[in-house]
Design brief:
The chain is of the alpha/beta class. It has helices at residues 42-56, 67-82, 157-166, 173-183, 192-205, 233-246, 270-282, 294-304, 342-364, and strands at residues 8-14, 23-26, 31-36, 99-108, 111-123, 131-135, 144-148, 208-212, 215-219, 226-227, 254-259, 286-291, 314-321, 327-332.
């Protein structure tokens, strides 16, 4: 087992978007699955974790007089990751004071838990000087963070690169950072578990992704390269993962945030997708994902029970919007221990109705 220490380990939020009350999350270094319906805060939670990891990695120790610069950098990261014009939009309107308080604890190679803690707060209506860091990390993280959004990026990569190099502020940070990561050229041939991931991706695509003259193509045996606008959307998303593993952007110590990985992939491909996810975890990559798919969740449960994955740390988070505003949160090591999630209950209820209908038709015949 090569599973690493993880990057984001603890997070406490209060007054942030849908999280009106103080909520605490504890993430595992293996796989973390955020489950919930629309407007439950899954993507907000994931984007916040990504922004904090992005801010916390790759730097050097800053002394206290420079805390203002770090506040400015953190503010900019939050605005660009969420694509908002001001911090007011990130505060919870369910609170009278409209103030958000956030504390995160991160961990990585040679960075023990407790030495990379960040605490800050910001208030609505106080934009330029509104964010204040009250706790700075003793060390910054040596790893990196990657965000894979539901939006496919490969076919629009040339346009993003042209705009981003001149006006990066016009693009959301996650997409721009992803394009920059894709710009890296493959180095040595990837071996071991990550080499297996690349082979699995290529088998799913039935070919290899190539970059020619600043554009990506799918090369299948015996065929001319195919423009990506002619390739299935789901294949382009999983192909992006393969490219990032191949060029070293996704490597041991990476925190990978994957929003709805099942999107535009039919159920026949999801078992292979889950196998890829768990292989990434075994290779030392922390994985945080959101999903609406009951099929994907059940496949995760099945494969996590396999002997090869039993030592993979895992945590399921259930997020349920409340009628009066805010969100109810539960977390557990197994899916069955979560509180009921309305969106999953609806899928199971429909399956019961369908089976009942089939049974009735069989009896009538």
């Amino acid at each position: 087992m090569v599973e690493g220490e993880g990057m984001i380990r603890k997070l406490t939020v209060e007054g942030f978007t849908v999280f009106h009350q103080q909520e605490a999350f504890r993430f595992e270094p293996g796989i973390n699955i955020l489950v919930g319906g629309n407007d439950s805060g899954k993507s907000h939670l994931m984007k916040l974790c990504y922004a904090l990891c992005k801010w916390g990695c790759g730097g050097t120790r800053r002394e206290l007089p420079e805390v203002w610069a770090e506040e400015k950098r953190l503010r900019q990261d939050l605005l660009r990751v969420f694509g908002t014009h001001n911090l007011t939009g990130l505060t919870s309107r369910g609170q009278q004071q409209h103030q958000a308080r956030i504390k995160a604890s991160m961990q990585g190679e040679k960075v023990p838990l407790g030495s990379a803690e960040l605490a800050f707060h910001f208030a609505a209506g106080q934009e330029e000087e509104g964010l204040h860091i009250t706790g700075m990390p003793e060390r910054y993280l040596p790893g990196n963070a990657i965000f894979l959004a539901p939006r496919e990026i490969l076919s629009i990569y040339p346009c993003y690169m042209q705009v981003g190099k001149r006006y990066p502020e016009l693009l959301d940070s996650a997409s721009w950072e992803l394009c920059r990561a894709l710009e890296s050229e493959p180095q040595n041939k990837v071996q071991g578990a990550l080499g297996y991931v690349i082979r699995q991706v290529e088998q799913l695509l039935r070919g290899q992704l190539l970059r020619l003259n600043g554009r990506f193509y799918l090369q299948r045996q015996g065929q001319a390269p195919v423009e990506l606008n002619l390739v299935a959307e789901g294949f382009k998303r999983i192909g992006t993962l393969g490219l990032l593993v191949g060029n070293g952007s996704i490597r041991p110590g990476t925190a990978l945030f994957w929003d709805e990985p099942e999107m535009n992939l039919n159920a026949t491909h999801l078992p292979r997708l889950v196998s890829i996810m768990l292989t990434l975890c075994r290779a030392g990559i922390q994985l945080v994902l959101t999903t609406h798919s009951l099929f994907l969740l059940r496949e995760l449960v099945i494969q996590l029970a396999d002997k090869a994955n039993q030592s993979t740390t895992r945590r399921f988070f259930g997020l349920q919007p409340l009628p009066q505003g805010g969100v109810s949160i539960s977390s557990a090591r197994t899916l069955d221990e979560l509180e009921h999630i309305a969106s999953l209950d609806a899928e199971m209820e429909q399956a019961d109705r369908y089976l009942s209908l089939s049974y009735m038709k069989g009896g009538m015949e």
